[in-house]
C-alpha cells in the first residue's frame, strides 16, 4: 500500500504549477506538488507585467482579448481565496522619444481594435522632476502587475496547510509508469504534470522539446520619494513599483549563457540604462538573474507525452507568464479532466518526438 493516493502529481510550483493546481482542485481533482525551495526560479524573479501592447510597432499581444480578462478574474479570485494582495492594475507609461513614435502611437490608438488598450498620450512635462525628458508618453490600458513572489508565497502556504507540498527535488528514476497509474516513491497517482520551467531540459521524458531559454537579469532598487503608481517604460527599461519605495528595474536578455548567476556586465548595463531614465538618486538593493523558459515560436508547451499517456507538460510561458498562465492552466485542466480538445497552437504535437 502507498502512503498517499492522489489524482495528479505536479512537479514545479512556479506560476504554471500553482495555477494548474488551483484549477485542477477547483474542478474536483486531488493534487500533490513536488518542488524544492524554488527561491531562484524564473517565476519568482519576474516582474509579473501584463502588457497588452508590445514591440516597436505597438502590436497587441497574442490572444490578448481572451487572456487579460481571464487573468484579471483569476488573480482577483485567488486574492480572495488566499487572503493576500498581489495583483495590481497599473497603466504602463511608454516613452515616445520621436515625432515618428508619437505619430505611430496615435495612429495605432485610433484603430478600433486597440481602443481598449491604448489611451491618450501625455506630454513629458508631468514627469520632469523624476525622469529625463522625452517627447511624450503613451498610456497602455488594461495593463497590470502581478507580484509573483508574493502570490507564490501565499499559494505555497495554502499547499503546506493542506499537506499538498513536498519541498524536494523530483527524482525521475523513482517514477514508475504502469498501465493505469504512476507511482512515485510512496505516492500513487493517475498522472504527473511537469511544470518545471527551464529545468525541463533535464527531464528525460520531455527534453526533446525545443526549449530555447534566455537569461534575464534585473535590479531591485530603492527610490525614496518617487511614488510611482504606474509602470514606466523608457530606453527599453521597465521601472515597476513593488511598494515601500522599491522598484523592479529590467530586464536584460541573453540567449547564450553558462549559468543563472548574476553578472557584472548585466548589472552595469542595467545601471547605465536606468541612469539615462531616472533623475532621482537610488540605491541598488538586489541583483537577480534567472533563465526564462522561452520557446522559438513563442507559444507555450501543453500536452501529453507521445508514449506515456499518464505524463503531461505545462511549460514554455516565456516572458509573458503572468498573462498566459491563468488561461492556459484552465485550458489544460479542462483537457485533462473534461476531455476538451487541446488547442493546436499550444499542443506539443506540433514538434516531432525525436528521442525518448
Automatic annotation (TrEMBL):
Pfam families: DAO. SUPFAM superfamilies: FAD-linked reductases, C-terminal domain, Nucleotide-binding domain. Residues 7-333 form the FAD dependent oxidoreductase domain. It comes from the Bacteria. This is FAD dependent oxidoreductase. Signal peptide: none annotated. InterPro entries: FAD-dep_OxRdtase (IPR006076), FAD/NAD-bd_sf (IPR036188). One of its GO terms (cellular component) is cytoplasm.
